[in-house]
Every structure is written in C-alpha cells, then in structure tokens.
Amino acid sequence: MENSFKIFPGGKLIISLLIMSTFLIKCGKNTQSGISYSRDIQTIFQYNCTSCHGNTSPSGGLSLTNYDSLMAGGNSGPVVRPKAKPEFSLLYKKVAYSEDKIPFGSRMPPNGPYLDESQIKYIWQWINNGAKNN
Prior knowledge:
With 134 residues, this protein is an all-alpha fold.
C-alpha cells in the first residue's frame, strides 16, 4: 500500500494537477465575482480619495464617502455607469488612464501616488460586475 495511486506512471502528478487546477478555477471565479463595494472599493476610496472627495465641499461635487453619493456623481454627472463597460465610466478613466486618454482634468488622485494595478483591477471588476452595493 506504499503507492496507492499507482494507476499508471505519473498518476500522482496528474491527480495533483487536477486538484490544483480545480482549486485555481474556483479562486478565479471568486476573485471576479467576489469584489465587494463595502469591503474592497470603499476601502480604496477611503485611503486614496476622500481627502478631496469627502463630505465637506467635495472636489468636483463628487463625494466618495458612500455608495449613494458615488452613484449620484458630481458636477460632471454620473462617474459610474453600472450597465456599461468599465472603460465608459469616468471613475475608471480617471484612476486608470494616462493623461492623454482622460476626457478632461487630470488623472486621480492628482499628483499621485496613483492607485496600484490591483486597486485599479478591483475597480474595473466591480464596475464590470454591475457596480453593486454589496
């Protein structure tokens, strides 16, 4: 009983690969659908955006202190379009795009430091999944 997986040569390796690939597929699905506004997105805003886009005289009329104020948008209108691709949301453009691709103003946060790639990816996934208040 020393080697109970001796189905054929390399049997242990194949079984291990199958188990690992199943695990990775499940993790990938959880990552894409598991983005939470309150846990992930609001935390990004809190640490990077609310010093300018807070409750007291928010810059551009856009408060990022809660879901309702985010979805209400600012002086330029809505910044998130839940039923559109993230590339059409002003919020995504302002944090992800280089200066030459932003429709107006500058990349956010102004003068940096800019959001890192994982934070930008979370915002993209959240918008892509419908920008839900979860």
